[in-house]
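General statements about sequence and structure are easier to judge against a single worked case. For one protein, we set the task of working out the structure tokens from the amino acid sequence alone. The sequence in question and its structure tokens are set out directly beneath this paragraph.
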Amino acid sequence: MSNSLTYFSTVEEVSSTSDEDLREGFGFLSPDTVVNYVMELRKKLRFTEESKEAAESEVGRLRRLVKDKEASTSAVPNLTYTGYSQEPGSSNQASNSLDNNKINNLHFVKLLPGFEIQATFLFKKGTEKFNLNLMSEKDSQKFYTFHLDFRPYPLGNVIVMNTNPAKSWEREIRAELPQLVNGRMYNVTVLCENKQFRVKINDKYIQSTFPYRYPLQDVAVIKLNHGSLGNKWVSLTWQPTKATQNPPSSAEVGNSKEAASCGSPPIKNSINLDTKLQPGMKISARAFFKKGTKKFTINLLKNTGFYIFHLDFRPYPHGNVIVMNTNPSKSWEKEIRAELPSLKDGEIMDVVIECGKDKFKVKVNGNYIGNVFPYRYPLGDVKMLSVAHGSNGNKWIALDYHE
């Protein structure tokens, strides 16, 4: 890689350089700061003239900030030089973390009242704090329109919400952070209401809301801070809510990519379990639905080809049905079917499989489906979870098993 690219001498080089070369050239800085940030800038450079102009301005700023490989700070403010190209590993990695990649720090968005942001993090004990930030287009690196900071035990077990208009932090609003369990995933929802943000953790609202201090429409970037010791954000989406007090009109939302976007990569197709499933345990998954996919599935396997539980989602016009079945490496057996709730293009779908005493019970978006599925083979024989993502951009973005 040339020195000219390292110093961002030309916009064209940034736009055309491969991901691999970017990582090679910027490996001396934390990959999840500069490298992923530059990748986001490159997407802007290739998108529209308006985005290109904004990205060119950022490239100019980065050129001034990045001096040489001995720089003491990264080109992304508040994210510091690490001294190595890979995050240090943790000796206490959770088994369910293998299936979920750490997502990029920066995501370009356009938000309106009536939108919701959904994010999932994998908690690792020992991290001091981690946060989700809505940054203003006025200064997308310093102007915090909403700062949602999680500070687990022993640093208070508190959620801190605040703003910073590129000057100084203002008055905090705090709420209790529920006790977090090492190695478990948690879902966070930020509802953008008419006059305030409202936050849920695992479908339970925190005690305090946060009134808008600066215009929601000025938000241009969602910035994530993963924390340390393997703590990480593994999925992020933003879209209009299903029902709002005053939802945005179709003219406001239009057909823009921001109207229903998913910033999360698809998860791996399969993971091996390091513990036996037992009655009382649950499997939680999250999918990003795209209209046109024929089907997408979750499988509980004894081994490749031996399906202890096959959960197949077939949206309209392919039946609007959920098909459950088994296949002991021979042939498919008797199906049990249930109605699949109607899904909208770009919608997030949450699935929970509850492992009961003698049967599986399935929830979709918080509601039980119309049928259960009795065990045909021992639950403890499940050794692997697998997914089929579907097509047309449909994808599973989170998968977890827990008590």
Summary: DSSP finds six helices and 25 strands in the chain. The first strand starts at residue 106 and ends at 108.
